[in-house]
Amino acid sequence: MISRIVISTAILLSCSLPVFSGVSNPDISAIGQLITSTSDAEGSYSNPELALGEVELVFDAALNPYANGRFVFSAGSEGFAVEEAYADFQKGLPLNLSIRVGKYRIPFGRMNYIHPHALSFMEAPRSMRPDDGGLIPGEESFNDVGAQLSTLIPISDIYALTLSGDLLQGNSFHMEESGTAYAWNGRILNSFSFDNGLLCEVGFSGARGFKTITPHDASFLFGGDFKAKKSFTGDKSLTFGAEWVSRKDDGEETRQGGYGFLEAKSGRCSIGMLAEQYQVPEETEWTRAIKPFISYSLLEETTLFRLAYERLMPVNGDASNGLFGQVLFSMGPHKAHQF
Q1: Which phi-psi region, left, alpha or beta, contains residue 122 (left: φ > 0; alpha: ψ -120 to 50)?
Q2: Is a pLDDT exceeding 50 seen at residue 114?
Q3: What does the angle CA 45 – CA 32 – CA 72 come to, to the nearest 5 degrees?
Q4: % of the chain exceeding 70 in pLDDT
Q5: 109 contacts 203 by C-beta, under 8 angstroms
Q6: Looking at the DSSP assignment, which residues form a beta bridge with residue 269?
Q7: pLDDT class for 335, splitting at 50, 70, 90?
């Protein structure tokens, strides 16, 4: 009898004690990948390469009732790095405002802030890669230390407007020089939701930074993007997306580039096509590429299989063909979901 009273009292006390979000363990996720590829860029197909791609570790938790924290670490052949580390303050602010501080992927356009494992075409389009197209600042993505202020404005039952602005350290614009030269980024996103299962988003982005600190050679970026997704019965959907970026560096000609894709999804399988063109530095002609792709999730999104073919037509050099395969495996709440 006494033991029952003790147990009942302990249960009641545990239920009545306050719970503090900051002392709980964070959600921990790990995402790994196996990649294989072959190309005929040298005149004939090379032996297929097999590699363990970048591994991503994610820690996510509520810091308190008003803020969330997120850490994203990446490990690969080039070592271990902090890809993102930021806090979001989303409650208790007037005018439906949100604040983000730390290091994060900048919401310039649609593609930059999405991690590659979330893309059905395996990796970001070449036109959106800093180390390839050269239109977007940064190393692998437009990723910087800064502070963001954003707000969501519901206009009507079907239309909402999202406004955001970022004050940045600016290192993404001058990767080869150390020091702070502040940059900014702004984005306007128009979202439409219709009763027939059609979702549309139209966005506009602008950013300015300094390519060199001394002298202050400025870079200005402007981008527009669009995405439409039509959902059907039986877990079927059709998605179309496109994005265009224009970049002007002091003393250089304006360069442009963009992509468009179409993806059909049915259950755990999706198939689609990506097409793009862009201007590399010091070139006015276009580099072009087309990329059909297919992906399949095994039972759920913890395991994804992807295949892709790419026809690359560079401005200088001969066209080449590439074949790519990828296996994504993940554990934890941060899944390798499909784009």
Answers
A1: left
A2: yes
A3: 125
A4: 91
A5: yes
A6: 266, 296
A7: low
Other beta carbons within 10 angstroms of residue 291's beta carbon come to: 23
In three state form, how does the secondary structure of the chain look? CHHHHHHHHHHHHHHHCCCCHHHCCCEEEEEEEEEEEEECCCCCCCCCEEEECCEEEEEEEEEECCEEEEEEEEEECCEEEEEEEEEEECCCCHHHEEEEEEEEECCCCCCCCCCHHHCCCCCCCHHHCCCCCCCCCCCCCCEEEEEEEEEEEECCCCEEEEEEEEEECCCCCCCCCCCCCCEEEEEEEEEEECCCCEEEEEEEEEEEEEEECCCCEEEEEEEEEEEEEEEECCCEEEEEEEEEEEEEECCCCCEEEEEEEEEEEECCEEEEEEEEEECCCCCCCCEEEEEEEEEEECCCCCEEEEEEEEEEECCCCCCEEEEEEEEEEEECCCCCCCC
Distance CA 252, CA 290 (A): 28
What is the per-residue pLDDT for 17?
43
- Please compute the mean of the pLDDT values over residues 186-196 and round it to a whole number: 95
Cβ contacts of 8 within 8 Å, gap of 6 or more: none
pLDDT at residue 168, rounded to an integer: 97
Enumerate domains of the chain plus CATH numbers.
34-52+90-331 (2.40.160.10)
Q: Which pLDDT does position 15 carry in this prediction?
A: 44
| pLDDT at 284 > cutoff 50 | yes
pLDDT, one tens digit per residue, over 40-97 is 988 778 788 899 988 999 999 999 999 999 999 999 877 889 999 999 999 889 989 9
Closest CA to 306 of 325, 330, 329: 325
